[in-house]
């Protein structure tokens, strides 16, 4: 006689630190509802089926009407059908608690019991996922959540599904402190030195919603989103992940919804940029100030050489000359101080290019008088102002084409 099969759900509150010291079991809270309680039978899961951890970002920039939870629904269904043990966890930047629920999917028993148990598991997983919408702290500790997941999942081919906009603003991956010229491997080495890099050896990671902030809390252009995707893929690969994939987002608009009231306010994230615009026989390369200078300084910083190396590559590719170097600032500060700072920054960039054999015909400081059309600061919503100001702090290099060598 085939034994009846059942499923168990457990809710735990676990410290979000890299090495949790306390684990508290709670009942009647979060996922432990009447709908999702242990029916009392024996659990017969399978270690061979492996485990999946689903991480749902509930920080202010991601937290909205459960769109990040809905985005993982197909993955939940697949994990249940594979007979995997599935964890669902909501995370933000709380230093004290990460909420997690677990469903052990039945894989042994008669077919009717297995179908029923899997249906119940999926129902509970969906319930728990949709419940992860209340941020308990501002900002988003993505690496902390990944570190917890890496010490939680086990078995054959463990998987992590990260549903997040990826706009991390804590610790060694605070994107407000990074330069686009830094490689993911360089950032990974720094995170490892500070013991913040999770150990993802053997894990498959699926990224969902990268660069798609909820509630339009940050401005993310398509080019910036691609950089963000490549950054996280590179960083997690450097952390040892067996594979890192990005889910295809069919409808970006689905991530844009009104943020519920009383949500903790995240620090906005301004991504470092290199943008190129071609017009006729010229190309304008725009470099974010964070790639070139320290805050408030006109002296080239440690990542400037890598960033300007990309300008030199453009020049060599088209046998070009430098027609103009222009510095720009945001609207903070006095017009005179902004003009002087932008002029000094343009001169520093021009001096570097001249040393490499590409003197500029014209050098000027525009201050805040020529903002990027997509980053106008006047009348900007409060939550977007910091990102728009960062977008306007830039140096533009205008290249005039010579004879192209191999095409662009």
Automatic annotation (TrEMBL):
Keywords: Cell outer membrane, Membrane. It holds the Pfam family OmpA. Residues 280-403 form the OmpA-like domain. PANTHER family: LIPOPROTEIN YIAD-RELATED, STATOR ELEMENT OF FLAGELLAR MOTOR COMPLEX. Residues 19-49 are annotated as: Disordered. It comes from Kineosporia mesophila. It is found in: Cell outer membrane. Residues 40-49 have a biased composition (Low complexity). This is OmpA-like domain-containing protein. PROSITE patterns: OMPA_2. Its main location: membrane. InterPro entries: Bact_OuterMem_StrucFunc, OMP_bac, OmpA-like, OmpA-like_sf.
């Amino acid at each position: 006689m085939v034994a009846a099969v059942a499923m168990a759900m457990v809710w735990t509150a676990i410290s979000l630190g890299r090495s949790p010291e306390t684990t508290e079991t709670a009942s009647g809270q979060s996922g432990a509802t009447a709908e999702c309680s242990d029916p009392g039978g024996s659990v017969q899961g399978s270690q061979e089926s492996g485990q999946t951890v689903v991480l749902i970002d509930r920080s202010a920039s991601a937290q909205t009407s459960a769109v990040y939870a809905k985005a993982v629904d197909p993955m939940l269904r697949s994990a249940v059908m594979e007979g995997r043990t599935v964890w669902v966890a909501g995370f933000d930047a709380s230093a004290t608690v990460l909420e997690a629920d677990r469903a052990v999917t039945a894989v042994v028993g008669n077919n009717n019991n297995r179908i029923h148990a899997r249906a119940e598991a999926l129902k509970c997983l969906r319930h728990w996922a949709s419940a992860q919408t209340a941020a308990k702290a501002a900002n988003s500790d993505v690496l902390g959540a990944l570190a917890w997941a890496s010490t939680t999942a086990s078995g054959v081919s463990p998987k992590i599904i990260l549903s997040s906009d990826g706009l991390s603003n804590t610790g060694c991956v605070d994107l407000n402190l990074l330069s686009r010229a830094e490689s993911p491997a360089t950032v990974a080495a720094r995170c490892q030195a500070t013991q913040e890099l999770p150990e993802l050896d053997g894990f498959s990671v699926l990224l969902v919603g990268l660069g798609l902030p909820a509630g339009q809390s940050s401005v993310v252009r398509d080019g910036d989103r691609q950089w963000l995707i490549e950054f996280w893929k590179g960083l997690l690969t450097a952390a040892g992940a067996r594979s890192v994939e990005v889910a295809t987002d069919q409808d970006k608009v689905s991530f844009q919804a009104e943020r519920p009231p009383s949500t903790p306010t995240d620090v906005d994230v301004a991504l470092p940029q290199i943008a190129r615009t071609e017009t006729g026989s010229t190309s304008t390369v725009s470099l974010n100030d964070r790639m070139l200078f320290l805050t408030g300084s006109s002296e080239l910083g440690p990542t400037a050489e890598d960033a300007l190396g990309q300008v030199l590559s453009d020049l060599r590719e088209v046998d070009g000359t430098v027609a103009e170097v222009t510095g720009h600032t945001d609207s903070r500060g006095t017009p005179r101080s902004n003009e002087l700072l932008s002029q000094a920054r343009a001169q520093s960039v021009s001096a570097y290019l001249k040393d490499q054999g590409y003197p500029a015909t014209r050098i000027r400081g525009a201050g805040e008088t020529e903002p990027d059309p997509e980053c106008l600061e006047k009348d900007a919503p409060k939550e977007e102002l910091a990102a728009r100001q960062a977008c306007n702090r830039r140096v533009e290099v205008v290249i005039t084409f010579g004879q192209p060598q191999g095409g662009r």
